[in-house]
Amino acid sequence: MEQFVDREPEIRTLEKEYAKKESSLVVVYGRRRVGKTTLLSEFMRGKKALYFLATQESEAVNRNAFREKAAAFIGNELLAETSVDKWDTIFKAIVSCNWEEKPVLIIDEFQYLGKTNPAFPSVFQRIWDELLMKSSVMVILCGSLISMMVSQTLSYNSPLYGRRTAQIRLKQIPFRYYREFVPNLSRKAQIERYAVTGGVPKYIESFSDCTDIFAGIEENILNRMGYLYEEPHFLLQQEVSEVGGYFSVLRAIAFGRTKLSEIASFMETKATDLTRTLKTLIELDLVQREVPVTEENPEKSKKGLYRITDYYIRFWFTMIYPNQGDIEQGNVTYVMEKVRKSFVRSHAAFVYEDICREELAARNDLPCHFPKIGRYWDKNTEIDIVALNEEEGVILFGECKYWSEQVDVDIFYQLQEKAGRVPWHKENRKELYCIFSMSGFSPRLRELAKSRDDLILSE
Fold first, then answer.
1. What is the pLDDT of residues 357-366, one digit of tens each?
2. What span, in angstroms and rounded, lies between the C-alpha atoms of 136 and 174?
């Protein structure tokens, strides 16, 4: 079983629903391998719980398997030996028991039941309304196919719309919890591994015994028999009908075509033809549309850029996808050399910027809170971090250096010069500066920081 790390808000939500006297219906969903089953296993501990994993087999096969599980759960030998052709019969047997404590019923991969029988969400809606809702039980519907879980349980057109009492979309684990998986790693090693595995527990554990990041990449990703080698294919094949177009968009973004017009040009198609593909990738948490943090109307901004937010997907499309021909031919050593040479410049340095933004948001030693943290760019300027406090008129400019040498004073003066080009409240604002460095700071920069109350150094 995967190691249980973080997930405190999710556990609190589940416990709150469990504590209710009345019935509760919770929808838990998120991408494959993100830790949904581990979360539910942790929550189930010490409770009277029935866990059922639906499969892509026929509805009759799933119903029969659920009947056997339910019979064992309630100790009903008659139900175990009886053939049933309705789900209602099984749920009636469960709720008719005299429970001393609130039972928990978990249906994992719920979307497969609706996939084999499109009418199943309607069937379950009736069972909920007529039986479960009135019986003080907790029901958890869990699934890993995001689009199907949304359409079957959350969307306005779903028969179950309005029935849920809570929903949890399980995201990847933030970097600040990474050391709990592998506590003895240096900060640099943690960042390197996070740059590849992201916050997906299954990926993290696959790298846990590797001596360094490159040994892990060779063993887990360049190995054609390892699950990570084909992982992007499996992630998308389950969610979309035609993978090719999505792969082309992801490849374009990974290759630096981040404007809509650039992606369209790369694919030799119209920008309007990409709207649906990009929308789906955003809904799947694989891509994000980003605008300069100073934009007042982000949705209408013409400065939007697209970036891959899933670090493993970004790494795969940057380093693996272009070299699959060599990997298939067994030229792994050649590909590993290419990965080693470009890993920091083409991938890890960008992830480090995201980590710095996350850490800045979590700091409690700043002069004020910053509700908005992001990046800034225009035709002539790029700044790694810009944080805004509109109410107090404070702006923070940040630079992130994933270097092997110490950062010197010239980086601060360059940041200060770039900050002067940012027009946000320029006539009346307080400016702060923060420099992040992977390898520390020169004595000159440390002395300068001591003499200025607007300069923060973070390593």
1. 999 999 988 9
2. 35
